[in-house]
TrEMBL record:
GO terms for molecular function: GTP binding. Pfam families: MobB (PF03205). Residues 15-130 form the Molybdopterin-guanine dinucleotide biosynthesis protein B (MobB) domain. CDD domains: MobB. This is Molybdopterin-guanine dinucleotide biosynthesis protein B. GO terms for biological process: Mo-molybdopterin cofactor biosynthetic process. InterPro entries: MGD_biosynthesis_adapter (IPR052539), MobB_dom (IPR004435), P-loop_NTPase (IPR027417).
Length: 207
């Protein structure tokens, strides 16, 4: 643990990851959860992982011209918004530390989309049977949000069918799916997940 992370360890807000394969509905789910938290007066920061070369700036702006001219970082601020674009990668821990450093009470929650290998509590999105191998690679899985019917998912995960390859090959030792809540996708499911995430946030605050 580096000095920055260690010094912030007592003021970090809770961090929750939303993970899933491409087109599993992560962005849609996060958007719905953000609306609920905003209506509840909560301030939530979102960190998104992009495996590709993303572009936030565009030709014709001063900041784009600065970057093209060789600036290592460009910052722009207005009365309502601030953005900093650096020409270098950052780890998830670095981004979380920077968000927390703004002040101890800047955010009630940091919500992370992606970063499957990171060690924070996760909600996994299982949109279809083909998504189940995702569970082979996760730690700290606290919730499963799925378009599959719960009985169908349970059968795929726990019932032995020797006529086919198992959907999940080798679960991490720290993962106990039988104790992981399975939440069906949909309007009611979003609210159930929202309530479950809020319960975690409240328990985190009591630590």
């Amino acid at each position: 643990m580096n000095g920055v992370t260690q010094s912030l360890s007592t003021v970090l807000p809770p961090v929750i990851q939303i993970v899933g394969y491409k087109n599993s509905g992560k962005t849609t789910l996060i958007t719905e959860l953000l609306r609920l938290w905003a209506a509840d007066g909560k301030r939530v920061a979102v960190i998104k992982h992009d495996a590709h070369q993303f572009q936030m700036d565009h030709p014709g702006t001063d900041t784009f011209a600065h970057t093209e001219a060789g600036a290592a970082a460009v910052a722009i601020t207005s009365p309502t918004r601030t953005a900093i674009i650096r020409e270098q990668p950052s780890t998830l821990q670095q981004i979380i530390a920077e968000l927390a450093a703004q002040s101890a009470d800047s955010y009630d929650l940091i919500l992370v989309e992606g970063f499957k290998q990171e060690p924070y509590p996760k909600a996994a999105l299982i949109a279809r049977e083909a998504d189940l191998p995702l569970l082979d690679h996760l730690t700290e899985l606290h919730w499963i949000y799925t378009r599959l019917q719960p009985n169908e998912l349970n059968a795929l995960l726990f019932e032995q069918d020797h006529s086919r390859e198992p959907a999940v090959q080798t679960l991490p030792e720290t993962l106990n799916l039988k104790e992981t809540p399975i939440i069906p996708a949909g309007k009611d499911g979003i609210m159930k997940l929202f309530i479950a995430l809020n319960a975690y946030i409240m328990s985190y605050a009591k630590r």
